[in-house]
């Protein structure tokens, strides 16, 4: 076979693998759109006058608690039902919660629905991320994961556009969200092609003298293997939640108009979405540790620029937020791709669950700290905290760079995981 023929065959093989991935990505985007619409609908419902603040706080904590539980339970569900079966089950569960919100406004019922909603979405994300990492190889893991991140970003955008189209006070928002999730689930089950088979490789035998608990891949093992990923994932959870939740408060404290703060958040989101594909392409061709080092330095520098500008030059502030989103929101997929390139594939579901758990902890724990710093120190303390997190990513990358490169793991997942693609 001539070199030209070999290159052409390789190209078409890669194109076929990418096309096989499209139905999975479409399902993720559609279901994520419905969930985004439900999340906004719940926030709008809880903002109505006359609702007790304690009830609001209770219901808002339901989702993250369920999310944490889903991160812990995902591995066991995948082991029993496979990736696709688990994906379908939790998607129908998410749709059920959407219809449930319409049935009653009773606080106990809504609390249960919020718990189930958080549980379902956590499992869905763990299943999606672990399956993508098992399906990918070293040459395309970054690109595939960046495509997944773009689908989740588009889902958030489409959800907000649906709210705008229907109107924030429309009585049909919950119905639209539930029907959108149902449509994505039915597409995955009936319209989309079966999930492509995972690559089959030689399975490394389990060690008979090691307990099952010790053979799981917990966060502590990831701390030892890839500390940069641990820092990157926590920083990503911290950045996502704080920028979206606290930038309006930051803008109010430095006297920016409300429309301007909304525009800054939009610029941040658009920067992250548009940068996913080129950063994913680069991460498959460059050392991901060096990329994380550069990303951390750039994100910290941009936070410094936002602090220094404040409200002095608003057009430049929009540019800085766009670039900050392009840098900070792409740290997560690069860090995940680096970790999954280093571990045995049988541990990918367990590792994905642990990392998503860490991400959710960054989401839940840090906004209160950031809000307190803004109240007691200064409004720009928000970006001091975020810039410090980005700088720590660079420190972690330096630590990993000092180590010799380990041989890549090529072992396949055990049958209980590989069976998920045959349903």
Automatic annotation (TrEMBL):
Instruction: Quote the cellular component terms of the Gene Ontology held in the record.
Output: plasma membrane
One matching Pfam family is: MFS_1
Organism of provenance: Rhizobium lusitanum
Which cell locations does it reside in? Membrane
Q: Does the keyword Transmembrane helix apply?
A: yes
Primary localization class, coarse? membrane
- Name the chain's protein: Major Facilitator Superfamily protein
User: Signal sequence: where?
Assistant: none
**Entry keyword annotation includes Oxidoreductase:** no
| Transmembrane region(s) | 20-38, 58-78, 85-103, 109-132, 144-163, 169-188, 219-238, 250-269, 290-310, 316-339, 351-374, 380-399
A molecular-function term among this protein's GO annotations: transmembrane transporter activity
Q: Which keywords label this protein?
A: Membrane, Transmembrane, Transmembrane helix
The lineage's top-level taxon is: Bacteria
Outline the extent of the Major facilitator superfamily (MFS) profile domain. Answer: 20-405
């Amino acid at each position: 076979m001539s070199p030209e023929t070999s290159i052409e065959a390789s190209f078409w093989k890669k194109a076929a693998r990418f096309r096989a991935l499209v139905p999975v990505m479409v399902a993720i985007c559609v279901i994520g759109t419905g969930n985004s619409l439900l999340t906004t609908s719940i926030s709008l419902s809880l903002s109505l006058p006359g609702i007790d603040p304690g009830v609001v706080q209770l219901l808002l904590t339901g989702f993250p608690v369920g999310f944490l539980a889903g991160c812990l339970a995902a591995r066991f569900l995948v082991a029993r039902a496979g990736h696709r079966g688990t994906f379908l089950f939790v998607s129908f569960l998410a749709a059920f919660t959407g219809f449930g919100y319409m049935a009653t406004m009773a606080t106990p019922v809504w609390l249960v629905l919020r718990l189930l909603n958080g549980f379902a979405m956590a499992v869905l994300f763990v299943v999606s991320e672990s399956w993508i990492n098992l399906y990918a190889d070293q040459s395309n893991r970054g690109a595939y994961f960046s495509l997944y991140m773009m689908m989740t970003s588009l889902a958030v955008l489409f959800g907000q556009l649906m709210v705008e189209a229907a109107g924030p006070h429309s009585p049909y928002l919950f119905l639209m969200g539930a029907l959108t999730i149902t449509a994505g689930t039915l597409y995955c089950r009936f319209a989309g092609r079966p999930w492509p088979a995972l690559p089959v490789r030689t399975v490394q035998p389990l060690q008979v003298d090691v307990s099952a608990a010790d053979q799981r891949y917990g966060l502590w093992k990831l701390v030892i293997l890839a500390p940069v990923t641990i820092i990157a994932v926590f920083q990503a959870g911290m950045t996502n939640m704080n920028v979206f939740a606290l930038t309006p408060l930051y803008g109010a404290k430095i006297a920016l108009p409300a429309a301007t703060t909304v525009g800054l958040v939009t610029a941040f989101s658009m920067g992250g979405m548009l940068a996913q594909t080129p950063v994913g392409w680069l991460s498959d061709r460059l050392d991901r540790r060096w990329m994380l080092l550069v990303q951390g330095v750039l994100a910290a520098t941009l936070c410094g620029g936002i602090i220094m500008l404040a409200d002095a030059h608003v057009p430049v502030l929009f540019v800085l937020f766009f670039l900050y989103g392009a840098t900070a929101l792409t740290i997560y997929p690069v860090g995940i791709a680096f970790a999954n390139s280093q571990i045995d594939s049988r541990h990918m579901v367990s590792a994905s669950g642990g990392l998503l758990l860490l991400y959710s902890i960054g989401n839940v724990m840090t906004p209160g700290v950031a809000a307190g710093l803004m109240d007691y120190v200064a409004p720009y303390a928000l970006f001091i905290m975020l810039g410090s997190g980005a700088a720590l990513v660079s420190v972690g990358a330096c630590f990993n760079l000092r180590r010799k490169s380990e041989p890549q793991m090529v072992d396949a997942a055990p049958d209980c995981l590989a069976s998920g693609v045959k349903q």
